[in-house]
Amino acid sequence: MNEEKFEEYLREGLKQGVESHLQRLEGLEERVLDALAERALRRGRWTKVLEPLLIPVRRRPALALVTTAAVFLIIGLFLGMGLGGPSLGGGKGVWFVVAYPEAQSVTIAGDFNGWTDTPLKRGKDGIWTIRLDLKPGRYEYAFKIDGKKWVPDPRADEYVKTYGNQYNSVIYV
Amino acid sequence: MPAKSQMDELELLQQALAGDLEAWGEMVTRYKRAVFGIALGILGNPADAEDATQDAFIRAYENLRRYDLRRRFSTWIFTIVSNICKNRLRQERFTSRLEDETQVPGGADPAMAAVEAERGRLIKEALSELDFKYRAPLVLRYYSELDYQEIAQILGLPEGTVKTHLHRGKAELKKILERKGVRGYE
């Protein structure tokens, strides 16, 4: 039995199997994006229902930062030494981070600043960051790229649909 | 900024990570055929393969933050779709469903197209009789044209095991095809 011929037969057969059904892939992009949007919306609805019962959970680098600061503060107070460091001003220091190497400017607007543009600082690798002092609560926000394009935060806790198939990000502090 | 279709993968992935869903749509366009081919080869059923393909791109986006940009995207998305197919095969209803809805593509010589379509159907049927452990490496090797190392990464197996499964899988497949009276490759 010729091994090479069998392998070629297998290749052709598999290829043909796919060719026969390629029409199933038409519009897949839209279906994927719609499903992602629907899932985000569903998560948003459930969170709204459960919000009073939930302890805000953060999955950001800021969590580590805030936790570490809190630990040092407690240790400092315990030792009677006090602790210097950033003032939280009645709120929590929350870092917003987004990668956009090609952008000339990135701003953030949301419930916390009356939906006005607050600029992020560009790092040398195209990572834009800002630290905001926020009081505990739920905030909707979005990034604006180059002063015109609104984008959600990929690291948000959840998303809510607004108008025109746009999504706001949601953060729980 | 260049059009999405002209951007390289890394740019698209960075934009997708930054929340640009259009960039993710372009990644779907680039990989949907390859992912669907794997799903169809493993599951055998076009409708299930379509579902698995869609599911793979949804899961990939939702886990994009965990994706290491230094890894090849193809390896990552192929791993996701292989795992989805493996889980689906565990459910009995997916193992027993095999639609005979092979379609002859238009425009080609009808006789030749019919022969090719029949070959595709026979391979699909024969593969569906194999265990996942033989089926997946055969599809990744002979449809996706991947090397042993990449197949090993995708399936989470040592390279030696992949080679063994390919060897045994081919032997099993030949037996099944011969049982069906197929000897066209000899």
Give an overview of the whole structure.
The complex is a heterodimer of chains A (173) and B (186). Chain A has 173 residues and is of the alpha+beta class. Chain A has helices spanning 3-19, 28-50, 61-79; strands at 92-99, 106-110, 118-119, 121-122, 127-134, 138-145, 149-151, 158-161, 167-172. Chain A has one domain: Sandwich (Immunoglobulin-like). Helices cover 34% and strands 27% of the residues of chain A. In chain A, the strands form two sheets. In chain A, strands 2, 3, 6, 7, 8 and 9 form a six-stranded antiparallel sheet that branches. Chain A has a three-stranded antiparallel sheet with strand order 1-5-4, with helices on one face. The N and C termini of chain A lie far apart (68 Å). With 186 residues, chain B is mainly alpha-helical. Helix content of chain B is 70%, strand content 0%. Chain B has two domains: 1-99, Rna Polymerase Sigma Factor, Chain: A, CATH 1.10.1740; 104-186, Orthogonal Bundle (Arc Repressor Mutant, subunit A). At the A-B interface, helix 1 and helix 2 of A face helix 1, helix 2, helix 3, helix 6 and helix 7 of B.
Number of structural units classed as domains of chain A: 1
Low-pLDDT segments, ≥5 res of chain B: 94-108
* CATH architectural arrangement of chain A: Sandwich
- Kindly identify the CATH topology of chain A: Immunoglobulin-like
- Can you tell me the CATH superfamily of the largest domain in chain B? RNA polymerase sigma factor, region 2, helix turn helix motif
Name the overall outline of chain A: elongated
* CATH-derived architecture of the largest domain in chain B: Orthogonal Bundle
Count of extended strands of chain B = 0
Query: What name does the CATH topology of the largest domain in chain B carry?
Result: Rna Polymerase Sigma Factor, Chain: A
What share of residues of chain B is helical? over 70%
Structural class of chain B: mainly alpha
Helix/strand order of chain B, N-terminal first: HHHHHHHHH
Strand composition percent of chain B: under 5%
Largest sheet geometry of chain A: 6 strands, antiparallel
Strand content of chain A: 25-35%
Number of alpha- plus pi-helical segments of chain A: 3
For this structure, what is the CATH homologous superfamily of chain A?
Answer: Immunoglobulins
